[in-house]
Write a structure and sequence with these properties.
heterotrimer; A alpha/beta (291); B alpha/beta (269); C mainly alpha (281); A: 291 residues; alpha/beta; 8-stranded mixed beta sheet; 4-stranded antiparallel beta sheet; globular; B: 269 residues; 6-stranded mixed beta sheet; 10 strands; 35% helix
Amino acid sequence: MIMCAEGVTLAYGKTPVVHDVTLDITEGGVGLIGESGSGKTTLARAFLSLLEPVKGRITYGGRDLRQVDMKAFRKAVQPVFQAESLDPRMSVGRSIAEGSRDRAAVPALMEEVGLDPAMAGRKPHQLSGGQRQRVVIARALAVRPRLLILDEPTSALDVTVQARILDLLEGVGTERLLITHNLAVVGRLCRTSHVLFAGRIVESGPTEDLLRRPAHPYTLALRDAVPKLGGEPPVARGRAESAPADTGCPFRLRCPLAVPECESVPEPREVAGRRVACHRAELVLTGLAGR
Amino acid sequence: MIRIRDLRVAYGPREVAHVPALDVGAGECVAIVGESGSGKSTTLLAALGLAEGARVSGEVTVCGVDVLRARPRALRAIRGSKAALVIQSPQAALSPTTRLGVLMRRALALHGVTGAPSQGKTQVQGEPADVRGGGPRRGIEGVMAEACEAVMLDPAILRRYPHEISGGQAQRFAIALAIALGAEVILADEPTSALDVTVQAEVVGVLRRLREERGLALLFVSHDLALVSTIADRVLVMKDGEVVESGQAAQVFTRPSHPYTRELLEALP
Amino acid sequence: MTAVEPRRRLFRVPDRFAAFGAVLLVLIVLSAVFAPWLAPYEENDVRPLESLLPPSGAHWFGTDQVGRDVLTQVLYGGRTSLVIAAAVLAASATVGVTLGVVAGYAGGWARDVIMRITDVFLAFPALLLSLALAVVLQPSVTTVILAIAVTWWPWYARLSASVAASVATRSYVDAARCLGVPASVIVARHVLPNSLTPVLVQLSLDGGGVILTAAALSYLGLGAHEPTAEWGLMVQQGQTIFTTNWWVVTFPGLAILLTAFAFNVLGEGLRGALDPRRTVR
């Protein structure tokens, strides 16, 4: 266990956006799946110690982040944001060396991420989106971190570029927390995954199980909404536009399986090898819930 | 509905798109796929005479109008009514201080849609007569409510302001507007790329239904091969301004003939 | 792997408007700098016998009440006015931007405190505060500079605070924080450089305003005084005889107008040219 969130609630001002989340970053890659407004980026900021929980705690190596030696932590845990996270006025070489302050290491780092070291003097806008993303990765790798927190690292890129970036990320030998809306990417990079809906984790378990046999209706809706090459057109399950419910199960207003019982908050429980917060998980698992 | 022959779009000395042939018939869905800079969006805009500052040559016919030679008034007329453009983020294009209903009513008035039975607009084939006012709900309100229902929006949404609706709702409102104006063909530029997948599924569902029920023609520009493969009849694959492969969707995606198409398919995660 | 059109538009196609303003301003500055060579007469060359001569071949802009050549005085007066403008802008931008950027990046109570201080200064009308200061201190060019700068810097503080606050939310700032870069270095390295564009535009837009305010203070007798040549002072001294000897007022007045105009055109042009939405890629 590298980092843990224990009952973490996060808020901007007085508005809570992440509720009582418990999550371990274990080895083998952890995926955090969610759509816009799910609170996934907020949770990532908390793991990066850019945001303090209003309730609960985040630990690194078993110790609360508030007591951890920040200097060591900053070297060990690094973010990989989207390609836009480069200072537009700074040459990419300087950006890469910003954390390590070791300009001599830049050429080797650039080669490591598949960039021509001759580009070090360029400004970000002189590079393509994929190249910029590689610079962002090199900047993080420069301090030799143990854990990378990847926030939608490929979603703004063309598919062919995205594929090469994923190859690169698979190759770097660090642990990772991958935050994304893209189920296929999680399947490639993460052994375990958590599905976030309206700031709550609704399902956690081995990524393969989650994708093959979802136990939460939201996971199911997500999976079936992803278009598959040559397959049936994506299916909309329930009303995706309904706002999350404030009481009871947050998904119930969108859920095609909702019953009166769903007005009470479902406690996370173990079902078929994963944790799921749903009263109707057994029905979802049968696969009959679909059509 | 749309017929393109030897379309060339150039900015200065640089040719950014060249499409030898593209046809979209009624009830058909044709997709242009490609990565950024492939010229796919430029092609779409040029087909509506919207490629500003570009040199456009060739032959483009949309709903019987010769786009490249038509006078601006004739162009505006088809753009507003028969051929509708749906963009990636319509919310930014909606006036923030105007309720959606007012917006729609103004657009309808501008194009002379009143919903009255005597209306001389071309009837969309296979469409029940009551849409144009023969049924119980007459007039412009009826047309508006009908259009909202066609895209599975609660007509109550017409009382809201643009910032009060979600991205998916805005996209469906844009489509509803096109339907109300009597669109026969929709040209959509990455209409679902800014949306969550669950919402994308809804918008795609709406587009498919309109196609089946109203014989709507659809020209669809997207970078998402998987999505395109599920809804398009025919596909054009573009790269660096050139069409590298075109044909039946099933054919292109199962037996791609061009190495670039293969590369795109293999890149799918 | 080719990056297309890597350069910003600003450096390829200079904005025509900005270029016009810049050229005009450079000409004005040059004419002030080279006044001793350009001026047909000596500065403050009082010739009582040649007072109030209308424009002629010998005195293009005519002469004033004490017989000084108006063209010469306008050229020398530009030195005072431009020095005032430069000093005021430098002082208020330095103070304002420093405080503003710190406030914008730090947020929280630091921002509140700094912004309340600017509110206090902004609560007084600029000219009124300058007036009060100028009354307390001796009327002089230095007083004018001090008085205007005191009322001017809060605008820069406000502007840069709001820009810096938005820059602070950029992901490259977060990335730097995660790399353990100290806050002071983040402000100097990332926030400040990326907040400067609007400040630059504002500076050039304000140049005209400062010159007008300085002229107004001198006009009210609270700024530059004899024998310093200054445009506002010249207008003040000539106003009583405007109906009979129009040239004494008109030429320094035109100089003020033209300079203010040049600053504004440059500012508007820069605003357009530096707008990120207008840069290619």
